[in-house]
Amino acid sequence: MTELEILQRAKMYIDKMANGVNPIDDAHVPDADTLNNVRISRCLSYVSGILGQVIENNGIIGKTKTLKKAFFLSDGAINKFSFSETPIPISEITNRLNALMNSDLSLKLSRKIITSWLMEIDVLEEIITAEGKKVRWPTERGSELGIYVEKRTGMNGEYSLAVYGREAQQFILDNIQAIISYANNIRKDTQPYKYPRRSWDAAQDKHLIELFNKNMPVSEISTILKRSEGGIRARLKKLGLIENRSDAL
What we know:
Layout: H1 3-18, H2 38-56, H3 75-78, H4 90-100, H5 111-120, E1 124-128, E2 134-138, H6 140-144, E3 147-154, E4 157-164, H7 166-174, H8 176-186, H9 202-213, H10 218-225, H11 229-238
Antiparallel strand pairs: 1-2, 3-4
Helix pairs in contact: 1-2, 2-8
C-alpha cells in the first residue's frame, strides 16, 4: 500500500468516526459513546478536511503547494449565532454563519450548499415557476420546520421568497456540523473536474456496485473508475445504494 493509499484509508476511518460509526465493523456506536460527542465529531470532520487537502496534493505536505482550506465552525462561534425572531431568507442565515467563521481557517459557506443539503433531507424541493424560473421551495416537512414562502415587493414588482422562521433557523444550527461535513465532501465538485463527465452504462454500474459492496471508500472508487467523487455519490444515490449523497464515505 502506498503512502497516498494509507492517507486515503486514514481519511475513511476518520470520516466514519466523525459520523458515529465504528470503522472496524461499520456498526453505529451508542449515543453515549465519546465518538458521538459533538465536539469530537467536529474535530474529526475538520481533520478529515485537512487530510483531504493533503490527498489532493498527492500526499505532499509542505510549501510546494498551498493547501486549500476546508469548511469549519467552532463550538464557541456556533453559540454566538444571532437568531431573528422574524423570518429571514437563507442568504441572511448564510451571512450570519460566515460572519462567525475564522477566514484564516475556513472557507465561506454559500446559500447553495445549505439549500442543497436541505434538499437532500427532503426539507426543500426544486420546482419551476410559471415564469420558467427554478426555485427551491419548502416541502411539507420544510413547512412544518418553519420555512415559508412570502410575497414581497421590490423595484421590479411583486415576487416570492422562501423565508426561515426561528424554528427553521434553529434546525439549521442544530445540523450545522452535518452541513459542514456535506460541504467538505462535495467541495471538489466546485473545482475544475479531474475527470470528464460521461454517461453511465450497465457494465459501469455493475463495477460500481461491486466496489461499493467491498466497502471501498469513494476516493478509491473515484480513482479506479476515473470519475469525480461527487459523480460516484450521485450514482450510488440514483441506484438506491445510499439515501443521501453525504452517506458514502
